[in-house]
Every structure is written in structure tokens, then in C-alpha cells.
Amino acid sequence: MMSELNLVEIEGGLKCYTPAGHNPVLTEAGLIYEEIFRRNVYLRGLNPIDPGGVVVDAGANIGLFTLFVKRHFPSASVLAVEPIPHNVAALRANLDLYSVAGVTVCPVGLSDQDGSARFYFFPSMPGNSTAHLANKLKDRETVATYATTEIAEQVYRHEEVDVAVRRLSDLLRDSPHASGDIELVKMDIEGSEQAALAGLDDGDWARIKQFAIEVHGAQDAVEAVLELLRGKGFTAQAQAESHSPRGIDSRLVYARRQPA
Q1: Which GO BP terms sit in this record (predicted)?
Q2: Taking a C-beta distance cutoff of 8 angstroms, is the pair 42, 58 a contact?
């Protein structure tokens, strides 16, 4: 069943729709606003992007990074990829709320092959939604060590949802962005990073100038992503997320294509 959307005010008059309930959303939407609008976590480790270029927002969630890009670069084109139907509904509502043009919404997940997959939607914290439930529930155990068990159970309560998954190269081919440079691929896809990168063809790797990827999991996952990016001709580095909740294991990987 589709969650009802709630319209909430975050900061400075910015409002957004979300499928989360009122109390949890103030926490999650505020955190996301803080990391994107105030700390600029996805762009701060990269070179400036072309204001009229193409940006891929993989793991678009309710659309705050897409709104950020369009606020700062109105002429940019965005391919917003989000698999969870509840989040897609909020994403579309937020684009309509601000009359945002130049955004193509792709309601699918990313993988190394086309098909379908089971995802898990977290109603209290939609940004936690993932195809990798076991890893996410490890975070629940961590949260329970410094919050109450009741809060941890509420935050990590989840529902199953089966969604389509596609290769990123196939999405690009079928989108208005089948050719030309891609200024940035931002990924925040809760554990599916390696599979998503495996869904890029060599020709599309060559088109991408920069990546900003939140990598979830142990250090070996981070090293695997760094090795892949460097092997594709990028300089890449990982940074710890200083504002992550205690014990939550994730890194931000920034990658820039080396000059030819």
C-alpha cells in the first residue's frame, strides 16, 4: 500500500513531500537537507561542474539533491533514479511543487543486469530503503546501543517491495542523455554501488567526468569501488562521513577523470 505523502517545512521556507510520518521525517529530512544544502557533501570533493551539463542522481530518494542541483544550476539536466514507489511519488510531488523542468525520473533500481529485485522500504526513514536488508539491520543493532530498542525498531521497521532494476547504461541509452558528457554521477543506493557500477559499459565510463558515491559496508567494499574507479581512469579517494550516526559504516568516494 502506498504511504500518504506529508508536506513538511525543513528550513528557510523549503518545503518537501515525504512518505515518512511527521516526527521521523523532521529528523531524516533535516539530516538530508543538512548534508546536501548546508554541507554540500556530494560536490565539495569535486571539480566545478558545467552549469548546463548532465547529472545522474542515483538513489534520488525524495529528490532533495535533484532540487539542490536545479537550484544552483537551473540549466542542468538531471536523470533521477529511485526504485522505491513511495519515494518516487514524493520525488515527483516535489518536482511539481517547485515546477522543476529538465528532470527525467526513472522509477527503477540499478544493478548489473535488467530484471527485478526485492527491496525493503523503511516508512520512518525512507532514505534507509535498500535491497540489502541484512546489512541495514546491522545498523539497527548499532543504533539500539545508544538509543532505545523501541526507537531502533521504529526506525528500522520495513516493508517488502518488488521493483524493476536496470543497468545504468541501458537507462542512459533510453533517456535524453544517450550521448555527450555526463558531469556527475552521484550514487547513494544503500549497498548496491558495486552492482550499479558493473552496469556501465565502457563507452559510458568514458563519458562520465566525476563520481560522488556513498559506499556502505566494510572497508573491503570501499577498496573494491576505489580499485574499479582507478582502473577506469579516475583519481579516487574515500572520506569518512564525520556526521554519520555513531557506528554506521559508510564512506564518501569522490572520483575525477584524469586528463587524457
Answers
A1: methylation
A2: no
CA distance 253 to 228: 12
Cα 120 to its chain centre, rounded Å, is 15
The answer to whether position 82 is within a domain reads yes
**Residue 7 belongs to some domain of the structure:** no
Domain containing 233 equals 41-257
| Cα(171)–Cα(182) distance, integer angstroms | 13
Does residue 21 lie within any of the structural domains? Answer: no
User: In terms of residues, how long is the chain?
Assistant: 260
**Could you please report the per-residue DSSP string of 117-154?**
EEEEE-TT-GGG-BS-HHHHHHHHHHHHHHS-HHHHHH
DSSP 175-236: STTSSS-B-EEEE--TT-HHHHHHT--HHHHTTB-EEEEEEESSHHHHHHHHHHHHHTTEEE
Cα maximum dimension of the chain: 54
Residue 130 inside a domain? The answer is yes
Answer for the pair 6, 18: CB distance below 8 angstroms, yes or no: yes
Helix, strand, or coil (residue 21): coil
| Lookup: cell for 38 | 548546508
Q: Convert the pLDDT of each residue in 92-138 to its tens digit.
A: 999 999 999 999 999 999 999 999 999 999 888 888 899 888 877 77
Read off the pLDDT of residues 30-40 as tens digits, 9 standing for 90 and up.
888 999 999 99
- All three cell numbers of 5, joined, read 505523502
86 within 8 A of 122, measured Cβ to Cβ: no
Cell of 160: 517488502
Q: What residues does 116 pair with on adjacent strands?
A: 164
- Which domain CATH number covers 214? 3.40.50.150
